[in-house]
Specification:
Layout: H1 3-46, H2 50-58, H3 61-92, E1 93-94, H4 98-104, H5 113-124, H6 129-138, H7 153-178, H8 181-189, H9 194-205, H10 207-223, H11 226-231, H12 236-246, H13 250-276, E2 293-294, H14 297-327, H15 336-369, H16 373-383, H17 390-416, H18 428-451, H19 456-464, H20 469-498, H21 501-506, H22 514-523, H23 527-554
Parallel strand pairs: 1-2
Helix pairs in contact: 1-13, 1-15, 1-16, 1-17, 3-4, 3-7, 3-10, 3-14, 4-14, 4-23, 5-7, 5-14, 5-23, 7-10, 8-9, 10-13, 12-13, 13-17, 14-23, 15-16, 15-18, 15-20, 17-18, 18-20, 19-20, 20-23, 22-23
Length: 555
Amino acid sequence: MTEATQYAAHGSRRHHARGTRVIGALAYTVAAACLLPMLAVALAAVTGGTDTITHLMETVLPSYTLTTLALVVMVAAGTFAIGVGAAWLVTMTRFPGVRLLEIALVLPLAYPAYVLAYAYTYLLDHPGIVQSTLRNVTGWGPRDYWFPEIRSLEGAAIMLILVLYPYVYLLARAAFLQQSAAAFLAARALGSTAWQAFWKVSLPMARPAIAGGVLLAVMETIADFGTVAYFGVQTFATGIYTSWFSMADRAGAAQLALCLLGFALLLAVVERVQRGRAKYYGAGRRHAAMPPAELGGWPAVLAFLLCVIPVLLGFVLPAVVLFDMGLGSEQDLFSRRYTGFIGNSLTLASVAAFVTVAAAICVGFSQRLRPGRRTATAAYIARLGYAVPGGVIAVGLLVPFAAFDNALDAWMRATFGISTGLLLTGSIWLLVAAYMVRFLASALGAYEGGQSMVHANMDAAARSLGQTPFGTLRRVHLPILTPSLLTALLIVFVDVMKELPATLIMRPFNYDTLAVQAYRLASDERLDGAAVPSLVIVAVGLLPVILICRQVGRR
């Protein structure tokens, strides 16, 4: 090797090492940003004193705990029953309409639960269409009959079940499709009925996937604010908002957020353990597709009804009600005010999507460049945000940055006589940071799914041709990963459009989004008006659902 060749090789190694260090530093910075809200909440809760937590334990903490646990249990049971039952029917049986229903069962995922709550309140509340028609037909007065109260804990649970069961359905359906028929048919040959074989063989084999779906639904449940706040259900999520704004009790909000954070992280650990155990429930080495059973007569009608009812209640009926509400409202979607809401929503969602996907690329590519315990830990911390409710992230970011802003303002006043005000706390960028922490796991999952298609030999070939890590990323990885990155951008974009608690707490003054406008109008009992921004949110939410439906249709 000549001296020039040795010098070039040495320079190439130096540039590669420098690029690796830079990308690693960016990845660790992203992980630290994701860890900051959790540490800030814990520190604020610990330094808040015992008086606040003692008062909370004597007053609202027991009711918050019981209500949250009751809501979690009901949503877990409901999503399990609907998701698993529908997945089994569309996968293992054949009846009229099954091909359409296996796709349509995903559609309720486009709705935020709070939008469903607005639609069903308009339909079922005392002045709503159903009860008004009932009183007109029967001549009854308000005290002459009993009707289920939609604004209740049970009502909130039903709303959440209708929009969250697709998580369980998608994962359970995938697990059933991957199962071999051998174990099921062996159980039938040994004298088990179809129901016994399902309960003893197929369901245990799919248990890790089903448990993962249920835990995802539970995490979304404890993070929900719009539905429980509108229905007047007192959970930890509503307690954090009330303590922060209504009572101006920062310590109380931080301690409630710490309780909710502990529960969320416990669920994240359980979900990870379940995912790790998935390999123990295989279908065996010999794979034979499960032959679907042909249904006819009353069984076919019953199977059709069991699958179509969640679609009707979770997608079709709310869409019709919202459209009817929107037609009767005085909200002009093309007015200057509404174009401002739409512009704010699109700006936040676009910026947050690009920032979040860029952060996911840094974390994922760093782990590929330098696999090891440190990069794996950084990636694990980056994924924790999906388990942390938006309200907790908001409190965890506002506490340290508000302290920084106040300290900087006090120093500038004392030194230069200038007030800097709130530089970070009232900015869009802090809100974007909250979105990044909350939705980074989704972007990272999509990026890593695409990255698995890039063979390690491509990296070696690029390096042998003198490419730095940034050059390899730009010229090799990104062109191959374009579909995965677009999917990640779309998922984060829609999640930000629907997000309510962090936006409600952290948005700059007089900077409202469609979700905030819908919540505000619904809180003022102007449900007709709330339908207009809600319909826009649902229309945008249909985009990733259509992508999922295409994947489901391809089986």
